[in-house]
Amino acid sequence: MQVSLVELAPVRASGTKHEALAAAVSAATEAEGFGYHRIWYAEHNHTPAFASQDPATLIALAAARTNRIRVGSGAVLLNHYRPFHVAERFQQLEALTPGRIDLGLGRATAGPLVHPGHSSVSFADQLRELLAHQHRGFPGNHPFATVDITAGIGGVPQVWVLGSSGKSAGLAGELRLGYVFAGFINPTAAVDSLRAYRESFAGAGQHRGMLALNIVAADDMVSAHRLTWPARALKQLRLTGDEIFVPTLAQAAKLLSPVAKQQPSHFDGSTIPAQLSGTVESLREQLSRIVELTGATEIMVQDMLVDGAERSRSRELIAAAVTGI
I need a labelling partner for 285 at 20 to 30 A (CA). Which of 84, 153, 248, 316 fits? Predict the structure, then answer.
């Protein structure tokens, strides 16, 4: 089983986006050393809590500092852009780092759009246009029919569709693309969404259904569970409208109530928790059952840890757990 990582570049209280971005780029070399298959960078627009706003910039920096790991976007929010711009930009990344670039695509569902006019075009139509740019799929009378963004480049980025509700699962299957379900947002819909993707997968070829989960790990179960607190505290800050930042473990301990601290973080065989925690052995057992339940072909890790040593150790242990499945 392959394990991958999505990096949000979380910003701690009193920290800077400069510091968060430096840590996010360094995370790529660390992840490669731990054996992760890919690292993706998120697109979080106009938010103080996360510094990853332009995945392509971070992809270029991370790819230049690594040798093997695939590097991509998780995700470019396509309704902010024109498909040609995204396709050409990622084609240049492919030219710089052949065979290692992933283009994960999603859509913005909250906050103002940078280009509101693009919202009148469906995500499906935008996605089909982008793929036509990649594969010269426009009919002969189309204005883009003679445009070849792949000229002189041996391949194209691997395209993935990201979703959190299951609505895009069928589209990804129909177009024979990879599909990533954001289980850290909506874990209860993971089983049905990944099943819908597999059932809609058209024609021959291997479907690629990835499950992204909020996962943390430590050398003992109590410490591992405590590492779920920053993610819980961040959600609480969002709900209360307080200043938004990603809390450290110590700050989360002060913010959360005793009840919130004890919310489940262990897979019970049927319900996938919003935050999953454990030791190497525990996570291996939990994730084996989750993979069996969902049919996922790859696990992607998301975390909300800003304490450097704890984050590094957690990611190292998770890699050991997943690669042992």
Answer: 248
